[in-house]
Amino acid sequence: MRKRLNITINKDLVEKMKKYATLRETSISHIVEEHFEALLERPSTLHKEMSLVEYVKTLPKSKVAYPKDFDFKKGYYKSKAKGYDEQNPV
């Protein structure tokens, strides 16, 4: 069963979405429905059942390869100190 939904969107965005839908031979309603379904399939921090550790495991992996013994805490503070020195030379 389908139900009508009225939403308010910026006029320019509506025009862009009409062109987008036409190019893909679909409707804006279909695009919105697919987007809503995709949002509901994604893990969310709002779900009480999912722990933070479980959520972090669902995130994409870093494209940067760090050495196994890399100290992230030390790297963070070193980076912060470097940025601070560059902005405020002594």
Q: What do you see in this structure?
A:
InterPro entries: DUF6364, Ribbon_hlx_hlx. The N and C termini lie far apart (69 Å). The chain has helices at residues 11-23, 28-41, 52-58, 72-87. The model has no long low-confidence stretch (mean pLDDT 81). It is an all-alpha fold and 90 residues long. It is elongated. The protein has one domain (11-87). The protein has four helices and no strands.
Q: Determine the mean pLDDT.
A: 81
Number of strands: 0
What portion of the residues fall into strands of 2 or more residues? Answer: under 5%
Radius of gyration: 22 Å
Main beta sheet: none
Instruction: Indicate the low-confidence ranges by residue numbers.
Output: none
The total number of structural domains is 1
Q: Which structural class should the secondary elements be placed in?
A: mainly alpha
Helix content: 55-70%
Order of helices and strands: HHHH
Number of helices: 4
What is the straight-line distance between the termini?
69 Å
Gross morphology is elongated
Which key phrases capture this entry?
90 residues; mainly alpha
Short description:
The protein is mainly alpha-helical and 90 residues long. The protein has four helices and no strands. Pfam families: DUF6364.
Helix and strand arrangement:
Blueprint: H1 11-23, H2 28-41, H3 52-58, H4 72-87
